[in-house]
């Protein structure tokens, strides 16, 4: 049973990374795609049991879009994001809120479009957040994603989890590392080793099991 993890980019002009991780955590395929149709071809070929996307996959309750000019608004008064994002903040884990005028608007729209297409085709899709997963697995010392130390840190910490990435170690970049951690979170979810945050009506976030 394989999981396909995706580190999605907002623009189709930049490659989004994919990692297909086997249930034994000893087999992995890495790749990338530009257009959504290219991802669809990968999914059709590999037929993963689960797809884990590291981007918001739903809008807040009451929203039809993220455009400031639209009159849609939060269904819950005094909100500034989805419930899962507020819960992350209470845990001390930083994230971007899904709200009007978000700097992630293009990414969110693309992620929702991809999720809709995959679910329509019969695939199971979950939302994951690699930054939160890394903090829960590795602790608070995780370097920022785009820092110079990030790739070497991720390689060192991923090998004990997914030993087969040593075969790719020379060519791994941070986007591939993020796709791998997303796929790993998906495998934890298949094995019932995860918790979820949020409200199912506006999307839930899958995380490694939280401390008691």
Describe this protein's structure.
The protein has helices at residues 36-46, 83-90, 105-120, 130-138, 150-158, 174-190; strands spanning 3-7, 16-21, 28-33, 50-53, 125-128, 194-199, 203-208. The two termini are 29 Å apart. Helix 5 packs parallel to helix 6 (174-190). The chain is built from six helices and seven strands. The chain is of the alpha/beta class.
In short:
The chain is 33% helix and 17% strand. It contains six helices and seven strands. The protein has a single domain (3-60, 102-208), classed as 2-Layer Sandwich (Nucleotidyltransferase, domain 5), CATH 3.30.420.140.
SSE topology sketch:
Elements: E1 3-7, E2 16-21, E3 28-33, H1 36-46, E4 50-53, H2 83-90, H3 105-120, E5 125-128, H4 130-138, H5 150-158, H6 174-190, E6 194-199, E7 203-208
Parallel strand pairs: 1-4, 4-5, 5-7
Antiparallel strand pairs: 1-2, 2-3, 6-7
Helix pairs in contact: 5-6
């Amino acid at each position: 049973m394989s999981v396909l993890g995706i580190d999605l980019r907002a623009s189709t002009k930049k490659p989004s990374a994919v990692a297909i991780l086997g249930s034994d955590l000893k087999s992995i395929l890495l790749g990338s795609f530009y257009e959504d149709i290219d991802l669809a071809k990968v999914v059709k070929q590999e037929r993963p049991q689960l797809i884990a996307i590291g981007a918001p996959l739903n809008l807040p309750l009451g929203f039809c879009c993220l455009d400031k000019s639209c009159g849609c608004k939060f269904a819950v008064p005094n909100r500034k994001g989805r419930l899962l994002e507020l819960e992350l903040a209470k845990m001390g884990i930083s994230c971007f809120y899904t709200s009007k005028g978000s700097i992630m608007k293009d990414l969110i729209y693309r992620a929702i479009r991809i999720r809709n297409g995959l679910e329509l085709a019969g695939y199971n899709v979950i939302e994951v957040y690699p930054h939160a997963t890394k903090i829960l697995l590795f602790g608070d010392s995780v370097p920022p994603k785009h820092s110079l130390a990030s790739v070497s840190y991720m390689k060192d910490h991923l090998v004990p989890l997914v030993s087969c990435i040593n075969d790719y170690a020379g060519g791994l970049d941070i986007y591939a590392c993020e796709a791998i951690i997303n796929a790993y979170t998906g495998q934890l979810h298949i094995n019932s080793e995860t918790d979820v945050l949020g409200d199912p009506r506006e999307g839930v976030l899958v995380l490694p099991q939280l401390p008691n």
